[in-house]
Amino acid sequence: MKMRMSKIFQKTMLLNFILFGVISTSMSLVSALTLHNHMVDEYVGKGKAIASSLASSSVEILLNRDASTIQSMIDQFRDSDGAAYVYVQDSNGNIVSHTFVPEVPEILSGTTIHPETISIRELEVPGMGTVIDITKPILAGMAGYVHVGMDKGIINKYVWAAIAKLQIVMSFIFWGSVFILYMMVKRISEPLNQLTEYAKKLSDHDFTAEIEITSKDEIGLLAGTMKNMAEELTTLISGLERAVGNATSELQDTLTYMEVIMDNLADGLLVVDINGRISVTNPALGELFGFKNHDMRGKDIKDYFPEEMTALFELVKGCEHEVYSSEIELNGRKTYKAVATPIHKTDGTANLNVCLGAVILVRDITYEKEVDNLKTDFISTVSHELRTPMTSILGFAKIIKKKLEKSVFPVCEAQDKKTTKAITQVQDNIGIIVSEGQRLTELINDVLDIAKMESGKIDWKRVPIDITEVIETSIHTTTPLWKPNNLKMIVEVDDSMPTMYGDRDRVMQVLVNLISNAVKFTDSGSITCTARSHDDEIMVSVSDTGSGISPEDQKKIFERFKQAGDTLTGKPKGTGLGLPICKQIVDHHNGRIWVDSKLGEGSSFHFTLALGAQKEDSPVPVAAPLKMSAPRDTHPGSAGSPLIMVADDDPALNEFLSQVLEEEGYRIVTVSNGQEAVETAKKRMPQLITMDLKMPVMDGAQAITALRQDPSTRHIPVIVISALAEGQQAGGDAALVKPIDEKRLVETIHGLLQEDLIMTDPCMVLGKENETPTENLLVICPGKINYCPPAELWDRVSSGFKGTIFITAELSNSLDLARLSQTPEVQIVILP
Amino acid sequence: MYKASSTLTLLLLTSLLVCPSAAAQKPFLLGMSAALTGPSKGLGIELYRGSKAYFDQINAQGGINGRKIAIKFLDDGYNPEPAIRNTIKLVEKDNVDCLFNYVGTPTVTRVLPVIKHFNSKEPEYLFFPFTGAQPQREFPYEEYVFNLRASYRQETWGLVHNLYMTGHNRIAVFYQADAYGRSGWDGTRKALKEKGLEIVAEATYRRGASFDESMKNQVEIISRGKPDAIISVGAYEACAAFIRDVRDAGIDVPICNLSFVGSENMLEPLTGLTKATGKDYTAGLINSQTVPSYEDMTLKAVREYREAMVKNPPPPEGFGKDYTPLQFSFISFEGFLNAKVMAHILKQLSMPQYQGNIYAATLSIRNLDIGIGTDINFGRGKHQGLDEVYYTTVSDGKFVPLKDWKRWSK
Prior knowledge:
The complex is a heterodimer of chains A (832) and B (410).
Chain A: H1 2-57, H2 59-64, H3 67-78, E1 83-89, E2 95-98, H4 106-109, E3 119-125, E4 129-138, E5 144-151, H5 152-203, H6 218-263, E6 268-273, E7 278-281, H7 283-289, H8 301-304, H9 307-318, E8 324-330, E9 334-347, E10 352-364, H10 366-408, H11 417-455, E11 463-465, H12 467-477, H13 479-482, E12 488-493, E13 500-502, H14 504-521, E14 526-534, E15 537-544, H15 551-556, H16 566-569, H17 578-588, E16 593-598, E17 602-610, E18 643-647, H18 651-663, E19 667-671, H19 674-684, E20 688-692, H20 700-709, H21 711-714, E21 718-722, E22 734-737, H22 742-752, H23 754-760, E23 763-766, H24 774-780, E24 785-788, H25 793-798, E25 803-808, H26 809-812, H27 817-822, E26 826-831
Parallel strand pairs in A: 12-14, 18-19, 18-20, 20-21, 21-22, 23-24, 23-25, 25-26
Antiparallel strand pairs in A: 1-2, 1-5, 3-4, 4-5, 6-7, 6-10, 8-9, 9-10, 11-13, 14-15, 15-17, 16-17
Helix pairs in contact in A: 1-5, 5-6, 10-11, 11-17, 12-14, 14-17, 19-20
Chain B: H1 2-18, H2 22-25, E1 28-34, H3 41-60, E2 69-75, H4 80-93, E3 98-100, H5 105-119, E4 126-127, E5 145-146, H6 152-165, E6 171-176, H7 179-194, E7 201-205, H8 216-224, E8 229-233, H9 236-248, E9 255-257, H10 263-277, E10 285-289, H11 300-310, H12 330-349, H13 358-363, E11 368-369, E12 375-376, E13 390-395, E14 398-401
Parallel strand pairs in B: 1-2, 1-3, 3-4, 4-5, 6-7, 6-8, 8-9, 9-10
Antiparallel strand pairs in B: 10-13, 11-12, 13-14
Helix pairs in contact in B: 3-12, 4-5, 6-7, 9-10
């Protein structure tokens, strides 16, 4: 305050001082110079005047040589101001009168000058200083000379005195100005200081401060403005404070709620910032991981939590709006499920998404897991137990059916209607038994599959996979499904897909499953298969333009026994295990499977597969050529070979089936609808009919019924080939679900054409020769029964055994029947 | 002053309006400007006292034809400017009958033009100024001044002559740097020139110097000329100081002072110094005088003077507070003689043949005996009453007539 005031004052003082210094110095200089010159002139003038007056008046006296009279004249001038001396010389240079005390200086007494007119010279007279000597001749020098010495020292004295006076006056003015300055500065700076003080108080939020400046100048105006400002600030700030108070209490309430909620969450809650530092935890988390009273805030997530959590966090923090979950096994005893969600903050202005970190919820699912495992084990066991008898039932049913149709019914030329009807019924019933058995087997297989997968009791292969080949094969396999529906199949595969390692058949199973699903729900449009490679994984998508899946269903479809649209249609379209199995397979390949769908616009199923690593040295296979075009021993159709009628409205499928079967050495006749099929069957009497269900004019089911009603065609075995699950119910002898496995088809055909079964398929009985009841088997396997010890079974199978294996019930439990049953060209019959 | 002028006015009114004979009752007013203050105040005061003593006697006897004589005195402090102002005042304001008893050469020489100026309107004369300077004795001022005493030139001639006769050839001059000193110097120079000699050394001092001032510079200058006698032309305090310093410098040559010095006043500090130091500062002193020694009781005037001075006339009113009047002195004696001659002139003035013409009345004086053994004569071209110079020397602490110059022979 004081400093500030005095600074202004100091500055102005300094300025004032300098100003005055300059003014007084220059004024002194100028006036001194002027005065000096003026006085010199004056003195010279004066001296001249004195000299002149003396010279003019003393002529007579001087001629009289009266020294005292001259002296008295001189005396009057001696006292006059500035005259250092006056003396009169006679014409000889003798000094007549003078005013020197105590004596005439030598410089003057010794020298004489004789100027014609007045002369002025400057002399240094000892004891007098500088003197301006003015010499005037009297009567042109005849009567002598008058000398007047003007004291220059007096001039200087006067000049100095004048300067001193000037300085005194200046100093008075200076101090006066300092005083005025002080008053002015005070007048200006005092209100300024007050204002500053006031502003300081305002800045310290002291709005009660008062200021008393009532002047009407700018400062007064400023003070008024500041006062108004302070008042407005007061109102504003009190309003703000109120608002902040309200907001704070609300926030506190919310926070309390939040804290209570978090603290009472059964699940562990972990919030991690973007740098992996723990920011929030709840007590449940501590209990889950056994941290008691640990303050984990700000610590690194790695320090406290297992790798899975860290990995989860790493996964989440990069991706946008994705939720990841993973299971964490802790000490092999406990299993937790962690769900991580990134925290995104949308910056309103920049429209930027900023990831603040992640929220990880951890739930103890040990119990659920155990229950799940128990369930899986249970299902697995039950399925297995179911399967064993099912295989026998189905196997025998099939055999019985074949025998009946091949050997019994033709012989039973029953005349009466009753017998005919009974035969027909037996025929129907045995067909139903076979088909239902097959459906049941399929279901059991699926259940067993998923159960095995979930319980981890499955042997996964690890072979090089060319995904392009897999996709093409899958599409080929499913051709009978989509072709008849006039769906367009679009394949978009990147040119250079990397080779991945995994279980080829399983991967194909996923693809086939997805494609058949797509076909199932798509009435028209296209199905698109795409494959792309990303870094170390491959993403495969199957998109359709079908009915789409509602968001609720999207969440469920990967769960077991949940099918989209179940409730709506009310009709099962499969086991409901397809997608769960897919998920298991994809999971096993370190991939993910998900669906994007919109109702009415179609669905896209995507799955990714990690490239994986080569497990063992196995040559990368050249893209296996499609079996369709693969060279194989063909049995060109001859007149003696069995005639097979292929009934399918899809000409492509007709052609496909024709080719497959022609290559097997059968003669083929194709029809494109049920009506045609019935007529052709009557005319040509084919040994076997493959029947599509959905056909124009007359559908497959009707055709079969018609055939069955006609005694001439009743015996002809019919294989229902359908994309639909109800194929087995159509009344055919066998039903194959599209996609059609050629081998299965051929096997099925062989199986239905009795002689093939007996003739071509070797029989193998598991067990010792003497212990097995062979009498019965001889019926089926005439003279071709091999015996094989159980230990050698897999060797035989892998070395290329094809045929029917009879297994005693006692042994069946110790074998992997599922695996055995999926081995191509091997049929299993479990002996009771 | 105010009182005096109002009295004067009253007197004038009385004389002009009330009674014609009252004009005869109007006193003779003599205007005096003298040094009544300053280092030379003793001169003015003593001169006044001497005159006053005589006028008091006349006035006591009823004045001259019933008219008393009054001195209107003003102080000039021995400085020319006040003297000029005083003169103007006395003439124009106080309307004095004449100017009387002025003291000092520098003052008188400056007053002379003023008097000359007044005479262009009506006659105005200066009577008996206490100075021996030349200007008032020469053209153009001799017309307006009447001197009683001999001139400095006469005094210095007498001194130089006597010194020369007693074998002193190296004469130095110590003098006051003004017209008085210069006239003494001039007189000395002229006298020496007659003898074919020159002043061997000269030194001046500034007028107004007191006894306390040092004159060593001047002594130094004088001693350079190795004088065998020194003529000192100055006022008493400066001369006493000079004598002191000369004697202190070990120079014991005769030191001659002029009448103007005021012998008794000069002697007083020297006597005091002698008493204080034991060294005789009063030896070797010769003072020339223009009046006889007041110790010479054979003279009638001396007796009258002494008689009058016993009454101890006071110093001029308002002056001389710190001054102790001398009982007798050459100056008061001169004042006394001045007054005596003046009174005679005033008496003559009353005579019908002069008709108030003071100039004519003065010039008419022939062979007037005032009791000093020498007659006084005035006349056309002769405006100086006395030409006699008297020499005195110190004896027994006072100046006594110098009878025999041989004593001073080298």
